[in-house]
Amino acid sequence: MTATIVIKKGREKPIAQQHPWIFSGAIEKLQGNPAPGDIVTVVSYDNRFLARGYWNPKSQIQVRILTWQDEPIDEGWWRRILARAVAGRAILNTHIERDGAAAAYRLVNAESDYLPGLIVDRYDKWLVVQSLTLGIEVRKPMIAALLAELLKPAGIYERSDVDVRGKEGLKAAVGRLEGESPPALIPIEETSHFYVDVMNGHKTGFYLDQRENRRILFDLINQDISGECRLLNLFSYTGGFGLTGLAAGGVHAVNVDSSLDALELAEKSIQLNSFREQQHGESWEFIQADAFDYLHDALDRREQFDIVVCDPPKFAHNKQQVERAARGYKDLNLNAFKLIKSGGYLITFSCSGAISADLFQKIVFGALADTGRQAQILRHLGPGDDHPAALTFPEGSYLKGLLLRVY
């Protein structure tokens, strides 16, 4: 028998609407004596069944809901929901896995795949797992075994070294979970080829959520840019957008990042690609610098670019940081607009969940207004199909972007 969480009167609506989080302030009382991480049943003040999930008294989010059905959460349940997430990528698999390509994409997207706290990414023959919550942590061996059964990877590696685990009372955890350890660098293929360091890189090693946006950049250069194209890739990390531009052809790509290790890995990825021979005029620069400082220096040098990609890290981790983050986004985009040739493009992003798509567009509009220039929205951008967002979980729509033509 599971313990029971009783919800305060008037606080049931978000649960009934299938939002997966229950905060401490919504809880009237706990009946029973569950261990942290245990499954609990959630009922209304008048004892109506609402949901079932796992419990952590150390977290502000005390219950993360797994099901809104009165069903057992056993190993069979985990196998079924994991298999459903994998099956949801079946169409994606046929789209991006061609001729034995070393594909990379997300297999499990936490709350948006109705598996809160669990991230699973695929890099060629290896899976990389992030366990973000106590409820996942206590079931990690079972989940790894089920993933091995379902997908038969060469190995499963853990990258649970993220700050959010601290809010769950957990320490960082990194290492092999199943099968072989991954190599130091895993080559993957999109429109360009990349090396991924799953042991030390950001997130699980690469920004998989930008895969479709890299494809959009590739198509933009092929279809709309004639002659040599100067591309500025800010916050470039391991050169995702820059190398994609080079693969499109006729591009001089300037990649700017504060991490020397990331830039050195980007340089290694050059060797995986045919454009390393510079047969079509491609060329590249890797510059270790603060992106804000680089923009100011580039303006002083009167530089101009056909395309600027601005993909900064998260500026706002909560609502209290939104105002400061907005100033940062505005400064970046204002200076980016100034560097773009008339008829050129700005591809700009925010990955701050606390910044809505509407607010981000208003911030970029404010930056444009201060320059006196004109711009058209060609596309609203977001993550690819491997990063679905549950309709009942708006927090899952963290990545938003704009493709703008600038005059």
Detailed description of the structure:
The protein is α/β, with parallel strands linked by helices. The protein folds into three domains: 3-67, Archaeosine Trna-guanine Transglycosylase, Chain: A, domain 4 (Roll), CATH 2.30.130.10; 75-182, 2-Layer Sandwich (Transcription Regulator spoIIAA), CATH 3.30.750; 203-406, Vaccinia Virus protein VP39 (Rossmann fold, 3-Layer(aba) Sandwich). It contains eleven helices and 20 strands. The strands form four sheets. Strands 16-15-14-17-18-20-19 form a seven-stranded mixed beta sheet, with helices on both faces. A six-stranded mixed beta sheet has the order 2-6-5-4-1-3, with no helix packed on it. A five-stranded mixed beta sheet has the order 7-8-9-10-11. Strand 8 and strand 9 (126-131) form a beta hairpin. The radius of gyration is 23 Å and the shape is globular.
Distinctive features:
407 residues, alpha/beta, Archaeosine Trna-guanine Transglycosylase, Chain: A, domain 4, Transcription Regulator spoIIAA, Rossmann fold, 7-stranded mixed beta sheet, 6-stranded mixed beta sheet, 11 helices, 29% helix, 30% strand
Number of domains: 3
Helix proportion of residues, in percent? 25-40%
Question: End-to-end span in angstroms?
Answer: 65 Å
**In the CATH hierarchy, what is the superfamily of the largest domain?**
Vaccinia Virus protein VP39
